[in-house]
Amino acid sequence: MNGGALHVHQASVGELQTAASAVLVPLAVTAPDAEGHGSAFRADIDAAAVGRAAVARIRGSAHLVRRSTRAISSTDPELLKITLHGSAEPAAVDQGDTRSRAHRGDFVVFDMTRPYRMAVPDGCDVLAVGISRTELGPHAGAVAGCAARRLPADSGAQAVFSGFLRGLGTHLDELAGPAQAHVGDALVSLLIAAFTETAPGRADTATELVDRIRVYALANISDSSLCVESVAAAHGISGRQLHRLFARSGTPFAAWLRAERLGRVRRDLLDPAHDSRTTAAVAARWGIHDPRHLARGLKSHYGRTARELRLDR
């Protein structure tokens, strides 16, 4: 979902399918024959981009959502879909060899690169988050490993994330500018906390080291001298070893650090609280001192110059 908000009320099955596919990836939505059920199909859909994730709330009649093999394309984004169920009756979900029934208050993860089915009951109330694997970094595998397993949200980080999502679902159209970016950051952090707290297995030593390096780099992100060599030395490894570690994670260290810095610069440029600061001062806060590097990075990542970002909010 590129941005803005989507609100469709009293939607037909076709309208629900179109909306769900626009928010996430191509999906097939069908519904049982309304004849004999006393009322026609209806669905209310509210969706919005929240940071770099998409969040949607769907309420209404029973329906079946399918992601078929035929619908999956190599050009589709590698998304994970996290659903929070609020219906009185359980939903039936399956992906691969895993099948479960999601009760009120349960989370379920779906890997959108593989086929799945979700049958929700009449009176459904489902909150769905669509997020790219890259946004979850090294935690993406742990979250995807929970696919089609129900995760009760009655305690710990799961309960905190559940409460956050329910609040977000009722205020989707009220987020804009810097508020949306900050809420998006919180969403990603809480999602990781909720699904890594109970994820099966334990991260290997290399993954743990990558996590420590990321934490170290973010703690020192304003230091413009931060680089592969300095970070490697701080962790007692060679620059070549650090390159190999990040190659396993899918994103080179320098590219990851650049994206983190640019994301923070963009967030500050969108925030009126920083209007008194020059663009150079905002960038320097996050370790970027070369205006040409900043201009190229913002244009490449966001399609906007610093000036355009400030004018667009």
Could you explain how this protein is built, in words?
The chain is an alpha+beta fold and 313 residues long. Helices cover 42% and strands 21% of the residues. The protein contains 12 helices and 12 strands. The protein has helices at residues 13-23, 133-136, 140-144, 156-169, 177-196, 205-219, 228-234, 239-249, 253-270, 279-285, 291-302, 306-312, and strands at residues 5-8, 28-30, 43-50, 53-60, 63-67, 79-85, 91-95, 98-102, 106-111, 116-120, 124-132, 151-152. It has a 7-stranded antiparallel sheet with strand order 1-3-4-11-6-9-12, sandwiched between helices. It has a 5-stranded antiparallel sheet with strand order 2-5-10-7-8. Helix 9 crosses helix 10 (279-285). The longest helix is centred in the middle third of the chain and has 20 residues, at 177-196. The radius of gyration is 21 Å and the shape is globular. The protein starts with a strand and ends with a helix. Mean pLDDT is 87; it is low at 34-38 and 198-204.
Briefly summarize what is shown.
By secondary structure, the chain is α+β, with helices and mostly antiparallel strands. The protein has helices spanning about 15-25, 135, 140-145, 155-170, 175-195, 205-220, 230-235, 240-250, 255-270, 280-285, 290-300, 305-310, and strands at about 5-10, 30, 45-50, 55-60, 65, 80-85, 90-95, 100, 105-110, 115-120, 125-130, 150. The strands form 2 sheets. The chain has a 7-stranded antiparallel beta sheet, sandwiched between helices. It has a 5-stranded antiparallel beta sheet with strand order 2-5-10-7-8.
